[in-house]
Design brief:
heteropentamer, A alpha+beta, B alpha/beta, C mainly alpha, D alpha/beta, E mainly alpha, A: alpha+beta, D-Maltodextrin-Binding Protein, domain 2, Dipeptide-binding Protein, domain 1, Dipeptide-binding Protein, domain 3, seven-stranded mixed beta sheet, four-stranded mixed beta sheet, 18 helices, 24 strands, globular, E: mainly alpha, MetI-like fold
Chain lengths: 604, 334, 322, 327, 300
């Protein structure tokens, strides 16, 4: 009697689960139109939000860069300024005023014209309230809109970024201007489709699942070959790479170092390694006692000989090979090779030379103590080296640095801490004055496409209390920084920047270890016409992620595009069927056999 | 008329140790037989062996033959397979256990359990079964409404009555009742014993009543068998066994039990305790505790008839006179 | 028949949940000042922090804050995710059905298979079948579920790629109908649900086995055999229903483990449920989300316990008449 | 009370909180226990006899009434301590009564330690106590309880009670879980102690035949109340309360032909939370008449040593009783 | 089994009294197949925890250019994503697992038995309060609770131990309480009370000696749970990142894409170590528990 109840309950449970499948799957059923060509991009994380006022993650930039133009876009070939919202621009003689001319026929995806009001709104509101954009507008004094097609920007000082790096998306004022600013910086959820000017606009966004972008009907450039792009979140890198391998997605824009080599060996998969505007550096505490009276560090770290010896002792290429599995680029100074217009290998490059390192230390009077750290007077070459627990690569690099430095008599004690903790250590303040509490650490920076100003700014005196974490301060460097910022002439600017690089190479507030790569993989049977450009001609990025949407216009569906992935579903069905039949047979046989079975068995 | 039940040389072993060691029994139709003994003497094991219900770890041998009325061929329990035994159980022999609380499925209504037993052995319609259950409950002195209850909703006495109703469900010719009243209070015990007696009269049941309480057996049974350490040491008509016991164990046991109306004093206790199955004494198993033990007791005594229907497994039987025991009243620990 | 027993259980569940609220409130406010968590922006000035404190009502006295907190929770206002700036509840709401699906399937399979195997083992105690099943169950019980998950991926998604190993449904596909959609979900469910099942199987097996062993030594089993009932039916009709009772109670204790398993398994298989959500929250230090998922997990476990009690009440007549 | 009185129980009440209300386990019991006397307390399960035993030693709190030791009320720590030194208790279940992790020697020594008896006396007193119960101290002193049989365990329990040389021993069903042959051994030990040491016993049992053989006086309990008391031969041979009568005739007698006519009671013992009105026995009483469901009878002298709580013996109701018999 | 119990079939199946047979632990461990297996495995891992660092063929985090290499003569269990020797990491990782397991279980045992003892013995409102607390800890999903606590604090071994210890005591408390409740009602405690023994004496002489075996058995099981918890927290990135444990190994393996790389040599050993160790400890724990808990005791 009661057993019937048990079956009733079990039945109810089964029904609940079945209903669950139905309800849950119905939720994700909004598919796309049949026959459309879709570019499926797999990545670990979706943007947490697509609201540019609060969004912070790289993935959000990837979406925005497709959805919206900048006032001036970047060329995928060399990252130089190309027309964006502005068709052309004039620079005044004093270089403090730039006049932009807009395409009078340009339209937003909803058909509204793109006007100078949109530009003014974006630069003024997004440029002051969007946390990630304020730094670009600090030089702007006023923005004029004499007519719908003209924008005039006045600056305090000449600022090359107004043309080559005004990294603020131009949003449609008629959409965003209606929303109170308080909401925009709060929980505002942008309306979909996300009205834009780029080739694709966001039509569906589920933060933890998927971002869908469809063709912008009013896009002014050539029509994209794909009808739709889907960014699919896989939660972790490995899952996205597996999805690419089985053909569930067509492209993975950020491949892990491990996956890079493996995917390269797969048929139908092409891997690309592009440089990026990011590097990983070892930072030395360079804070003078004047600026930081209460800083905590081993003063020996401020002995230039120690830093230089460290630089010689560290084999950057070996770190690249082991920690990055040879996917990164060996660094030569603090300007990544990504900025090809300004890049040059500096003269002071500290090639791997442990003998030289020892020599430098000997010369500086640091006594060799065999396996123990070198000493001089009461000082000992023993430093802490902090790394973030979140970054396996940094931890690896730190271990290798410590291993190699030990060979020349400098001991770096690797301490793995959380990002928050390391942040707190570097920005620590005592009595309102900076008091960083570290000897060295390993972390990284990433810059803007084309314009290197941000990366260069990190070492300026002005950023102490801001983004400066080495507390390096050099008046010459600061002067040169301002100079390059006002230089609109690329060749001239390159010269200034190279002098800055040389300064830092000598003083070594940072020992830049590697330039971080941008690793990509795509299926050759699904994606055709790939021209790896950004920033180089043959080994660059396939879609120029976050930098330029132009490559997206050329790539096209491949030979077998549109075939849904999830390979081996036929096999899966077969397996399930076999299992079901097998289990059924088992039960039947057992039931027969058991009919005359013995009762309760006891062990002896 | 041949015996309803005949058991010869029944043996049960657990891990090579004898628990029941050569038991012979015979039971006529309608007869009530008492099986007495202390805990661990093998009486419950014997009962379960009669229905072949022992766990496989207990190895059973010997012949058990049933001749229920209306069945031509005698049923050889020892040879029957498990499937074969299923047709014998409850149809001809049923069982009443001591803990009625644990003898009924706690999550099934009691009438359903009775119905299950009936349907198992007879093809009866739902109405028929229902009527039969009501009749059974009335027979054991319960109102039919109590059938709708669960075991825990019944009192101890009601549960035991319910168990008896279950035992009668298929109208068996033999009921084995294993300590049916041990967990009950004396006043309730009296009710249940009364019920068993009247049922026996009305239905012509044969009964094997297992108990450690000689008083219960004396009042309920026609014949009695006394078990000690896996063997039957004495068997005979109740009157004969109680009046003139022929085995020292029976004798000493009866002497030591205080009886209302008897002398207001404690009898001499039997010293020591029963042996472990692994350490059975040589020869007569009661020898170490027996005040009359002699050299000849080192050989196994057989169960011999001393008078009509009365047998004893003592070398010295028949006893006409019991001498004063040596070493009586010893306080030595058992 | 009285529902007092059940009413007591409901009251206890409510009390436990109240305790969860208090704990949650103090944990996230006392152990970590939310403003420092909320404003990990380097630029935040003291004024902005003050403003933030005000926005979150943190300048009120603690008791007032608690009342606000309880009220907000009652309205399912669990605050905003730091990461996405979206209401935490909306993220939880999206994730919840998937977790229920995974956990439901896993629990159901584990219960059915586990208890069935437990019955098989208990009726063959000491035999080779029993030893084998016991060894297998102990192994799955001891093995970390995420390790099993990784191995499943290794074998069935990479080595012999027959099952998808990530997400809950093939992304961005237009399904022709409900059933093709459900079939796709089912395919994606295979590996995570297997991991979940294997994780839970052992416990259910062990509980059912020992419960059956206990029941099989009860007198009424002997009585049922004595009535001539075939062994099969004694087991099925009498032993199993009785043995299921402790299973119900003891499996309630399992729910906590189920939730733990949901976190790791969903992470491994990118299953977009609550577990994965809380894993992301761990990584992002998104405390409002972490707090919210913890609250929902706790509520879920309390509710599941209550359901188990109801089930027990339904199955065991002894409780009903108390 | 007189000089002979060891303990006096007056109007003792013990209540428990049960699921269905308050159970009056002991409901106004008065008893006198004399020095060197074996006082039997007889009753079925649920009659409150074990609770009475515990209440006598202050192991369960009493709701009302008093326990006196030699005329002095036991209240407060000092008098309770004295009581517990002079009166010991033995429990029913020999498997529960000994700490499994203590050796026999330790168990028997424990009372001496607890009561602060000088260390030097320990060994001799433990030896004597063990010998008194028939256990060889050399053989048994080092054993653990699991190495003992049920009878031996109960002997150890008695030894542990004896070691303090008490004047009284309260035995709560000391042999009900033992086999017949072992049971008489233990009873013999107790009888011997009474004879040799002049130990007074309260013997709590459900078995009337044991009470018959062992006790000097008997009190019969029903549902928390003493319904009859008197000397053992009087109560059992000439029971005056219908309940006692039923109880006596219900005991099966191990002799040829069994006992005589049985007086069968209907129904079962009611729950202690729902005591019937009037005479608490009336729903089951075969001789109930008119006022039984209304009047709660006190203990009435019925001649000789006996008292019975039954209206049949109320002289004021004699005519009505007569009339009821006439029916 | 004593003679009195070997008689009838039902009596054969009857359980002897609980805890009444002390002193057979040796027999328990060496006399049964399960005991020998559990003991051998635990001994093996204890050896690893003590000497793993010494016998490891390589420094556990020594990197090499040989990344994710399958097992070979040089690396018996292959290499990690940074070219470190998997075998060495497995050997060294034993220490963290075992240290965390033991330390957390110790905390949990002390907490749980104190709460259980106090609540169970004294009863009343103390008990009700402690019982509610226990109930809460029992009902609350443990892993999320651990995650929340570990995330709020900074990752370190101490935090890990504290978090696991503080969240896993409730079961012990519950079991101890139940045991104390039955002990409190047992005749020998009542007897001691009848003698006039005080609470302290009764707890010391009667309650504790009869509870300790149970606490011990339960603590053994908690060690297994703590090892699993450490692994799970480490796997979720909440472990101590400066130390190699099997959990962090699995985290690194998963994060570095070992499943896709089919690097079974990286995935299987740490998980197998956890499984086998937990299995062995659980078997020992069940063995002890069966021994001290009558309900679980089986024959053979």
């Amino acid at each position: 009697m009661r057993l019937k109840r048990v079956w009733t309950v079990t039945g109810l449970l089964v029904a609940t689960v079945a209903l669950g499948v139905g309800v849950a799957s119905a939720g994700g059923a909004s598919g796309s139109k049949q026959g459309d060509s879709i570019l499926k991009i797999g990545w670990a994380q979706n943007p947490s939000t697509i609201n540019p006022y609060v969004g912070q993650d790289e993935e959000a930039f990837s979406i925005w860069a497709i959805n919206w133009d900048l006032l001036v876009n970047f060329s995928p070939k060399d990252l130089s300024p190309t027309p964006g919202i502005a068709e052309s621009w004039d620079i005044s003689d004093d270089k403090k005023t730039v006049t932009f001319h807009l395409d009078p026929n340009a339209k937003w995806s909803d058909g509204q014209p793109i006007t100078s009001e949109d530009v003014k709104y974006s630069l003024e509101v997004l440029g002051s309230k969007g946390a990630l954009f304020t730094s670009y507008t600090d030089n702007i004094t006023s923005i004029e809109t004499p007519n719908a097609d003209t924008v005039v920007i006045h600056t305090k000082r000449p600022d090359a970024r107004i043309v080559g790096g005004l990294f603020i998306y131009i949003l449609p004022k008629h959409v965003w201007g209606k929303v109170p600013v308080g909401d925009l910086t709060g929980s505002y959820k942008p309306e979909l489709p996300l009205v834009g000017s780029g080739p694709f606009i966001v039509t569906d966004f589920e933060p933890n699942r998927i971002t869908k972008m469809e063709k912008n009907p009013n896009f002014r450039g050539p029509e994209p070959k794909f009808d739709e792009i889907q960014f699919i979140r896989y939660g972790n890198q490995d899952a996205a790479e597996r999805a690419l391998q089985v053909g569930e997605v067509d492209m993975v824009p950020e491949v892990s170092a491990a996956g890079f080599a493996r995917l390269g060996d797969q048929p139908n998969i092409e891997t690309l390694r592009a440089s990026s505007p990011a590097y990983t550096q070892m930072a030395f505490n360079s804070c003078s006692t004047k600026i930081c009276p209460d800083a905590q560090y081993n003063p020996a770290i401020q002995d230039l000989a120690v830093r230089q010896a460290t630089a010689y002792a560290v084999d950057r290429e070996r770190i690249n090979q082991i920690a990055a599995r040879d996917t990164s680029f060996e660094a030569h100074g603090m300007l990544p090779s990504f900025y090809k217009s300004f890049y040059e290998v500096p003269a002071d490059d500290y090639p791997y030379d442990p003998e030289k390192a020892k020599q430098i230390l000997d010369d500086a009077g640091w006594q060799d103590n065999g396996d123990s750290p070198r000493t001089k007077g009461g000082q000992e070459l023993k430093f802490n080296l902090y790394v973030r627990s979140e970054s396996p690569y940094d931890i690896q690099a730190a271990k290798l640095v410590a291993e190699q430095a030990k060979a020349v008599g400098i001991e770096y004690d690797v301490q793995v801490v959380s990002t928050d903790k390391l942040y707190d250590l570097t920005v620590r303040k005592v009595n309102g004055k900076p008091a960083p509490d570290y000897d060295t650490f390993i972390w990284g920076w990433g810059g803007d496409p084309y314009d290197p100003s941000f990366l260069l700014s990190v070492l300026t005196t002005g950023e102490i209390g801001g983004s400066s974490d080495s507390y390096y301060s050099n008046p010459t460097y600061d002067r040169l920084f301002k100079q390059q910022a006002g230089s609109f002439d690329t060749a001239q600017r390159k010269g200034i920047i190279q002098r800055m690089v040389a300064l830092t190479q000598h003083d070594l507030p940072y020992l830049v270890i590697t330039y971080d790569p941008n690793l990509e993989a795509y299926r050759t049977d699904r994606v055709a016409n790939v021209e790896p450009t950004c920033p180089e001609d043959s080994t660059g990025d396939a879609i120029c992620d976050q930098t330029s949407y132009e490559p997206l216009l050329t790539i096209a569906p491949g030979s077998s595009s549109g075939e849904s992935g999830g390979g081996g579903s036929g096999i899966a069905i077969a397996v399930v069927a076999v299992v079901v039949v097998g289990v059924g047979a088992f039960f039947v046989i057992r039931a027969r056999r058991r009919r005359d079975s013995e009762p309760l068995e006891l062990d002896e | 008329m041949s015996a309803l039940l005949k058991v010869s040389d029944l043996r049960v072993e657990y891990r090579g140790q004898p628990i029941v060691d050569g038991v012979d029994l015979a039971l006529e139709r309608g007869e009530a037989m008492g099986l007495a003994g202390e805990s661990g003497c093998g009486k419950t094991t014997t009962a379960l062996a009669l229905m072949k219900l022992l766990p496989p770890a207990l190895k059973q041998s010997g012949a058990v033959t049933l001749r229920p009325p209306g069945v031509e061929e005698p049923i050889n329990v020892g040879r029957r397979t498990e499937a074969g035994m299923r047709r014998v159980r409850w149809r001809h022999v049923s069982l009443v256990f001591q803990g009625a609380m644990n003898s009924l499925d706690p999550v099934q209504r009691v009438d359903a359990q009775i119905a299950e037993a009936i349907r198992l052995h007879e093809s009866a319609g739902a109405k028929e079964v229902r009527a039969r259950i009501d009749e059974l409950l009335t027979t054991v002195g319960l109102t039919p409404a109590l059938g709708r209850r669960y075991a825990h909703q019944l009192s101890g006495g009601q549960r035991q009555r319910m168990m008896i109703a279950l035992a009668l469900a298929c109208r068996p010719s033999l009921v084995i009742a294993d300590e049916p009243t041990t967990a009950l209070d004396v006043t309730i015990q009296a009710q249940v014993l009364q019920l068993l007696e009247s049922l026996r009269e009305r239905l012509g049941l044969a009964l094997i009543l297992i108990s450690h309480d000689l008083g219960v057996l004396a009042e309920t049974c026609d014949r009695i068998a006394i078990m000690y350490a896996g063997r039957i040491v004495e068997t005979g008509p109740v009157s004969s066994v109680f009046e003139a016991p022929q085995h020292p164990y029976t004798k000493r046991l009866l002497d030591s039990l205080p009886v209302i109306g008897g002398p207001r004093a404690l009898g001499d206790p039997i010293p020591g305790g029963p042996p472990d199955p692994g350490e059975m004494p040589e020869g007569c198993r009661f020898r170490p505790r027996c005040p009359y033990a002699a050299d000849r007791c080192l050989s196994d005594p057989a169960l011999r008839e001393t008078s009509a229907g009365h047998a004893s497994a003592c070398h010295f039987a028949p006893w006409s006179e019991w001498p004063a025991a040596a070493g009586a009243g010893s306080l030595e620990a058992g | 028949m009285s529902g007092r027993w059940l009413a007591g259980k409901v009251a206890a569940a409510l009390l436990t949940f109240a305790f969860v609220l208090v704990f949650n409130f103090f944990l996230f406010r006392v152990m970590g000042d939310p403003t420092t968590q909320l404003a990990r922006l380097p630029q935040a000035t003291p004024e902005e922090l003050q403003q933030l404190r005000h926005n979150y009502g943190l300048d009120k006295p603690l008791m007032g804050q608690f009342v606000d907190y309880v009220g907000d929770t009652g309205r399912l206002d669990l605050g905003l995710s730091q990461r996405s700036r979206q209401p935490v509840w909306s993220e939880i709401k999206d994730a919840l059905p998937w977790t229920l699906l995974l956990v439901g399937t896993g629990t159901l399979l584990a219960t059915v298979i586990g208890s069935w195997l437990g019955v098989v083992a208990a009726t063959r105690r000491g035999k080779r079948t029993d030893d084998g099943l016991l060894g297998f169950s102990l192994f799955t019980y001891a093995a970390p579920e995420y390790w099993i998950g990784i191995i499943l991926i290794l074998v069935f998604a990479v080595w012999i790629p027959i099952f998808p190993s990530g997400l809950q449904v093939t992304p961005g596909v237009q399904f022709s109908g409900f059933f093709s959609n459900a079939w796709d979900v089912a395919k994606h469910l295979v590996l995570p649900a297997t991991a979940m099942t294997l994780m839970l199987l052992g416990q259910y097996f062990l509980i059912m086995r020992s419960s059956m062993v206990d029941v099989l030594t009860e007198d009424f089993i002997t009585v049922k055999r004595a009535t001539g009932l075939p062994w099969e039916r004694v087991v099925r009709r009498h032993a199993v229903p009785n043995a299921l009772l402790p299973l119900v109670t003891l499996s309630a204790i399992q729910f906590g483990a189920v939730v733990g398993g949901a976190i790791t398994i969903e992470t491994i298989f990118s299953w977009p449920g609550l577990g994965e959500l809380s894993f992301q929250a761990i990584n992002d230090k998104d405390f409002p989300v972490l707090e919210g998922t913890f609250l929902v997990f706790s509520a879920g476990v309390i509710l599941a316990n209550l359901l188990a009690d109801c089930l027990y009440f339904y199955l065991d007549p002894r409780v009903q008449s108390r | 009370m007189n000089d002979e009185t060891l303990m006096d129980v007056r109007e003792l009440e013990v209540q428990f909180r049960a699921r269905r209300g308050v159970a009056r386990a002991v409901d106004g019991v008065s008893l006198e226990w004399r020095r060197g006397e074996v006082l039997g307390v007889v009753g079925e399960s649920g009659s409150g006899k074990s609770t009475l035993a515990r209440a006598m030693l202050g192991l369960v709190p009493s709701a009302a009434g008093a326990v006196e030791l030699e005329g002095r009320a036991v209240n407060g720590k000092a008098s309770l301590g004295e009581l517990r030194r002079r009166v010991q208790m033995i429990f029913q279940d020999p498997y529960q009564t000994l700490n499994p992790r203590q050796r026999v020697g330790t168990i028997v020594t424990e009372p001496l330690i607890v009561q602060g008896v000088p260390r030097g006396e320990h060994e001799a007193r433990v030896r004597r106590a063990l010998e008194d119960v028939g256990l060889d101290p050399e053989r048994f002193g080092g054993r653990y309880p699991y190495q003992l049989s049920g009878g031996q365990r109960q002997r150890v329990a008695i030894a542990a009670a004896l070691v303090l040389e008490p004047e009284g021993l309260i035995c709560d069903e000391p042999v009900s879980m033992l086999d017949a042959s072992v049971r008489t051994q233990i009873l013999a030990v107790l009888g011997e102690l009474k004879r040799r040491r002049g130990l007074g016993l309260v013997f709590i049992t459900h078995d009337l035949s044991l009470a018959w053989a062992l006790c000097d006086r008997i009190a019969v309990m029903y549902l928390g109340r003493v319904v009859e008391q008197g000397s053992a031969p009087d109560v059992i041979e000439r029971p005056q309360h219908p309940y006692t009568q039923a109880l006596v005739t219900a005991v099966p007698v191990p002799s040829a032909g069994g006992g005589g006519r049985r007086e069968l009671l209907s129904g079962e013992l009611p729950d202690a939370t729902a005591v019937p009105s009037g005479c608490r026995f009336h729903p089951r009483c075969p001789r109930r008449f008119g006022p039984c469901d209304r009047v709660d009878p006190p203990l009435i002298a019925t001649g000789g040593s006996q008292l019975a709580a039954c209206l049949l013996h109320d002289p004021a109701l004699a005519t009505e009783v007569q009339a009821a018999r006439g029916d | 089994m004593s003679g009195e119990q070997a008689g009838a079939a039902v009596e054969v199946l009857a359980q002897p009294e609980f805890g009444d047979e002390p002193g057979t632990v040796r027999e328990l461990l060496l006399g049964t197949w399960r005991g020998r297996f559990g003991l051998a495995v635990v001994a093996l891992f204890a050896f690893m925890a003590l000497f793993g660092k010494a016998i490891a063929p390589y420094p556990p985090d020594a990197s090499s250019l040989d990344v994710l290499a399958p097992p070979s003569i040089h690396h018996l269990l292959g290499t990690t994503e940074s070219g470190a020797d998997v075998l060495s990491q497995v050997l060294v990782g034993a220490r963290v697992s075992i240290v965390v397991g033991l330390a957390a279980a110790a905390i949990s045992a002390v907490l749980g038995s104190t709460v259980g003892l106090v609540g169970g013995y004294f009863g009343g409102w103390t008990d009700r309060g402690l019982d509610a607390l226990e109930n809460w800890f029992l009902v609350i999903p443990t892993l999320p609770l651990m995650i929340v606590l570990a995330r709020l604090l900074n990752p370190s071994l101490t935090v890990l131990i504290a978090v696991i210890g503080l969240t896993s005591w409730a079961g012990t408390g519950r079991i101890v309480r139940a045991q104390v409740l039955t002990l409190r009602e047992r005749a020998f405690v009542e007897r001691a009370r009848a003698l006039g023994a005080g609470d302290g004496y009764i707890i010391r002489k009667h309650i504790l000696p009869n509870t300790l075996p149970l606490i011990f058995a339960n603590t053994v099981l908690i060690v297994a749970v703590a090892i699993l918890s450490e692994a799970a927290l480490s796997f979720l990135g909440l472990g101590d990142p400066t130390r190699i444990s099997w959990g962090t190994m699995l985290e690194n393996a998963f994060e570095s894409g070992a499943p896709s790389a089919q690097a079974w040599w990286y995935v299987i050993p740490p998980g197998l170590c956890i499984t086998v160790l937990v299995l062995a400890i659980s078997i020992l724990g069940y063995l002890f528990e069966e021994h001290v808990n009558p309900r679980l005791r089986e024959h053979g």
